[in-house]
C-alpha cells in the first residue's frame, strides 16, 4: 500500500480507533509494559513513539520518563495525533509533543533519542526497513528500539479469520511475503533479520499471549469495523452488498467465540527489542 493510501485509510479509521483505544490498550497492556521495559525507558529518557495512533502507549511512556523526560508521538495521520494532544492534556502531561509524517520519511538524525517504540505499527509500513533506518539515525549510540507486532495467523484466530473472510468476499489475496500486512513480521526470524539488516545489534524477543474479553461478539465486531484500519481497507472499495455480506460472515465467525459469560479471544504478540550499536 502506498503512503497516501495508508494516510487516507488511517484518517478514516482515526475516530473509531480513538473510540476503542482504551479497549485495545487494556487488551495489549502486558505487551506494552514489556516493550517499555525492553526499551529501557526510565526517568528522564527522551523517547520517539512511531505510529503512535491515539497515543495510549505514548502516555504510558510519558508517565515513565517523568517531568525530566520527553516523548515525541509520530504518526502518518494527523487526526490520530490530535487525539494524542487532547489525551495528554487531559492527563495533565506536558512532556509529550507530536510530529506528523510517515515513519519512513522522518528526518531525525542527530536527535539522540534514548529509545524508539512502535506498538502494532511496523508490520503495516510500506517500507519497514526504511523506517528502521530512520529510527536508528534518530537514536543515540547505545539507544534501544522496541516494537510489538502480531505473530502468525495460527496464533491469532481473532485477527486472522475475519481478515480471511473479508479478503475472500473482496476477491483479494493476502499480501505476499515481504509486503505490509498484519502478519508480515510475525513468522519466526523475520523481525530479527529485519533488525539485523537495518544495523541493529543484540536483538531480544518475547512471545506473549494476551486475552481479549468483551461483553459480546457484537461489540467485538463493532470495534473491528470502526477501528481496524487494515480490515476496513479490504472491503472499502467494494459494493455495499459485498461489504454487508462480508461483515455478516465475520459476525457469524465471532459469535463462535461468544459464551454465556461474554466474548473471549486472544492475540499472540511478538515483543522485540534491539540496540543501536555504539
Ligand atoms: C494499529 S494502529 C496502532 C496505533 C498505536 N501504536 C497503538 O498501538 O494503539 C497503526 C497506526 O499506524 C499508523 N501508520 C500506518 N502507516 C504508517 C506509516 N507509514 N508511518 C507512520 N504511521 C503509520 C496509523 O495511522 C495508525 O495510527
Furnish the topology, listing elements before pairings.
Elements: H1 3-27, H2 29-38, E1 46-50, H3 56-65, E2 70-75, H4 78-90, E3 96-100, E4 113-119, H5 128-138, E5 139-150, H6 157-170, H7 190-197, E6 201-214, H8 217-227, H9 229-235, H10 240-255, E7 258-259, E8 262-275
Parallel strand pairs: 1-2, 1-4, 2-3, 4-5
Antiparallel strand pairs: 5-8, 6-8, 7-8
Helix pairs in contact: 1-4, 1-8, 1-9, 6-10, 8-10
Question: What is this structure, in a nutshell?
Answer:
This protein is α/β, with parallel strands linked by helices and 278 residues long. Helix content is 45%, strand content 23%.
Architecture overview:
The structure is a single chain. The chain is of the alpha/beta class and 278 residues long. The chain contains 10 helices and 8 strands. The chain has helices at 3-27, 29-38, 56-65, 78-90, 128-138, 157-170, 190-197, 217-227, 229-235, 240-255; strands at 46-50, 70-75, 96-100, 113-119, 139-150, 201-214, 258-259, 262-275. Strands 1, 2, 3, 4, 5, 6, 7 and 8 form an 8-stranded mixed sheet that branches. The model has no long low-confidence stretch (mean pLDDT 96). The chain binds S-adenosylmethionine.
Element order, helices and strands?
Answer: HHEHEHEEHEHHEHHHEE
C-alpha-based Rg, rounded: 18 Å
pLDDT < 50 stretches: none
Average pLDDT figure: 96
First and last CA, distance:
34 Å
Gross morphology is globular
Main sheet overview: 8 strands, mixed
Q: What proportion of the residues form beta strands (DSSP E)? A: 15-25%
Count of helical stretches: 10
Number of strand elements: 8
Which class best fits the helix and strand makeup? alpha/beta
Instruction: Tell me which ligands are bound.
Output: S-adenosylmethionine
**What percent of the residues sit in helical stretches (DSSP H or I)?**
40-55%
Amino acid at each position: 500500500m502506498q503512503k497516501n493510501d495508508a494516510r487516507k485509510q488511517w484518517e478514516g479509521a482515526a475516530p473509531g480507533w480513538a473510540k476503542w483505544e482504551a479497549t485495545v490498550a487494556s487488551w495489549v497492556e502486558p505487551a506494552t509494559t514489556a516493550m517499555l521495559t525492553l526499551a529501557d525507558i526510565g526517568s528522564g529518557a527522551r523517547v520517539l513513539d512511531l505510529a503512535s495512533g491515539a497515543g495510549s502507549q505514548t502516555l504510558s511512556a510519558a508517565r515513565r520518563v517523568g517531568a525530566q523526560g520527553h516523548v515525541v508521538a509520530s504518526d502518518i495521520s494527523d487526526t490520530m495525533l490530535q487525539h494524542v494532544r487532547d489525551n495528554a492534556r487531559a492527563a495533565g502531561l506536558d512532556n509529550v509533543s507530536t510530529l506528523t509524517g510517515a515513519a519512513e520519511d522522518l528526518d531525525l538524525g542527530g536527535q539522540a533519542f534514548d529509545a524508539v517504540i512502535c506498538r502494532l505499527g511496523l508490520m503495516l509500513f510500506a517500507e519497514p526497513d526504511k523506517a528502521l533506518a530512520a529510527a536508528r539515525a534518530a537514536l543515540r549510540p547505545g539507544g534501544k528500539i522496541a516494537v510489538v507486532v502480531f505473530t502468525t495467523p495460527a496464533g491469532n484466530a481473532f485477527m486472522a479469520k475475519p481478515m480471511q473472510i473479508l479478503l475472500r468476499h473482496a476477491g483479494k489475496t493476502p499480501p505476499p511475503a515481504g509486503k505490509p500486512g498484519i502478519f508480515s513480521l510475525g513468522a519466526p526470524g523475520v523481525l530479527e533479520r529485519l533488525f539485523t539488516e537495518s544495523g541493529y545489534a543484540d536483538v531480544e524477543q518475547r512471545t506473549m499471549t494476551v486475552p481479549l474479553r468483551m461483553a459480546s461478539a457484537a461489540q467485538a465486531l463493532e470495534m473491528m469495523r470502526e477501528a481496524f484500519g487494515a480490515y476496513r481497507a479490504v472491503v472499502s472499495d467494494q459494493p455495499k452488498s459485498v461489504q454487508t455480506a462480508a461483515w455478516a460472515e465475520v459476525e457469524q465467525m465471532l459469535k463462535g467465540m461468544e459464551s454465556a459469560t461474554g466474548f473471549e479471544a486472544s492475540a499472540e504478540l511478538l515483543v522485540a527489542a534491539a540496540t543501536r550499536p555504539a
